[in-house]
Write a structure and sequence with these properties.
By secondary structure, the protein is α+β, with helices and mostly antiparallel strands. Helix content is 30%, strand content 18%. The chain contains 3 helices and 5 strands. The longest helix is centred in the middle third of the chain and has 21 residues. It binds guanosine-5'-monophosphate (5GP).
Length: 138
């Protein structure tokens, strides 16, 4: 399986489609998931193309996980969460639907189950407000 440079996250990286970005550095961006499984659900992706963890280079992964931690800490604070779920899927059999490496960072409230993966589109105003909360915490 090879990398398809027309996947949705590649288009977000190139600025061809909009996203509620919360973080950017030389190697990484983070933005709100449009179908959040909980309030504050954020995706963290490298600028370097790879489909997933199976073809990523270790240096990219190392840099990426450091940002995942940064976003997780900020998301816990921003959404007054009790915990944070970090998920990463590889290939369709594992549940991957967008083929550019990404980590899901999902703030969790005690007793509140996750909504379905790729379930319901969130209101853009809610996503914008949640993105601002996260930026403030960062
Ligand atoms: P995967 O199954 O590949 O791990 O997850 C892909 C994620 O991307 C899903 O959680 C889905 O809600 C999210 N997603 C799909 N299309 C878009 C989009 O156009 N913009 C954003 N921000 N997220 C998307």
């Amino acid at each position: 399986m090879s990398y398809d440079s027309n996947n949705i996250f590649a288009k977000i990286l190139r600025g061809e489609i909009p996203a509620h970005r919360v973080y950017e550095d030389e190697h990484t961006i983070a933005f709100m998931d449009v179908m959040p499984q909980a309030d504050g659900h954020t995706l963290v992706i490298p600028k370097t193309p790879s489909r997933n963890i199976l073809d990523a280079d270790p240096e990219t992964l190392a840099r990426l996980i450091a940002v995942v931690q940064k976003i997780a800490v900020a998301a816990k604070k921003a959404f007054e969460a009790d915990g944070v779920t970090v998920i990463q899927f590889n290939e369709p059999a594992a549940g991957q639907t967008v083929y550019h490496l990404h980590f899901h960072v999902i703030p969790r409230v005690e007793g509140l189950p996750l909504k379905p993966h790729s379930g319901t589109m969130e209101d853009q105003g809610v996503l914008a407000a949640n993105a601002q909360k996260l930026r403030d915490a960062l």
